[in-house]
Model the fold of this input.
Amino acid sequence: MILVAGATGNIGAELVRTLSKQGVPVRALVRDQAKATLPSGVEAVTGDLNRPETLSEALDGVHGMFLLSGYNDLPDLLKRAKKAGVQRVALLSGGSAALQDLNNAVSRYMTLSERAVRASELAWTFLRPRSFMSNSLRWLPQLAVGDVVRVQFPDVRVGAIDPADIAAVAATALTDGGLDGQVLELTGPQALLPADQIAVLAAVLDRPLVAHALSNEETKAELVATMPQEYVDAFLGFFADGTLDEATLYSTVEQVIGRPPSTFAQWATAHADAFK
Ligand SMILES: NC(=O)c1ccc[n+]([C@@H]2O[C@H](COP(=O)([O-])OP(=O)(O)OC[C@H]3O[C@@H](n4cnc5c(N)ncnc54)[C@H](OP(=O)(O)O)[C@@H]3O)[C@@H](O)[C@H]2O)c1
Done:
């Protein structure tokens, strides 16, 4: 049995689908069963990652666990997982874990989560994806009202990755011990500017979309409206100060799953309905 945390999220939902299609017994950890749409045959169990004591039922009989970074007491959660018989964890982390920058809120929670998993004595694989292609869905409110899209960090190239490719790698890590102890840097096949992504969307949606580049000050104002200050500072550090490189591409996805990762055009075509 594989337990998938974040089963309603970008990666978790893809992972539940992937494992279920492969015929692997999978259990979805959710906070609200009413919000979870799961493939038939997938069992949902309620629990809160911030309260490890709520996870007993979810962990019962589990062999492998897909875990997210950044929750309150991961050492306790992992101790309970080990006691329940869990053998292996695939941790969704990110490129900024490599910085080990405890003064940056995002790098800090990823670094501390990886350290907790390393200390747990469970077998582990760390997944360090770069930005998800699905982040472009954040442009939906703008696309609903016009063809001009205000883009943050317009000069920053990112090797964005399809969440389904991250899930495919996670499925391999959890069902095949061959990736135990590995830190996997995961990217898509191209390092694109935001304007390049807009151009791809324009072609896929057949719309005359235009990217409007925001200054760092304008970006900061947008971020402040949507997230706590420490995360605003973290993202400005990564992409305005340039502490995080998301442009370098890796062949990890193809090495693990035996096919190249999806391009942004392939992802956008597969998800075109979501933009309409
Ligand atoms: N977005 C990116 O570009 C990117 C890049 C690299 C790494 N990451 C990392 O990937 C992770 C997922 O990010 P995301 O943006 O894809 O998030 P997301 O899709 O919103 O997924 C978050 C999931 O976690 C669940 N969740 C939240 N709090 C929980 C709790 N206390 N207990 C149990 N489940 C809980 C949510 O469930 P509910 O349905 O109950 O809310 C949801 O299923 C984050 O750690 C992020 O830092 C993201």
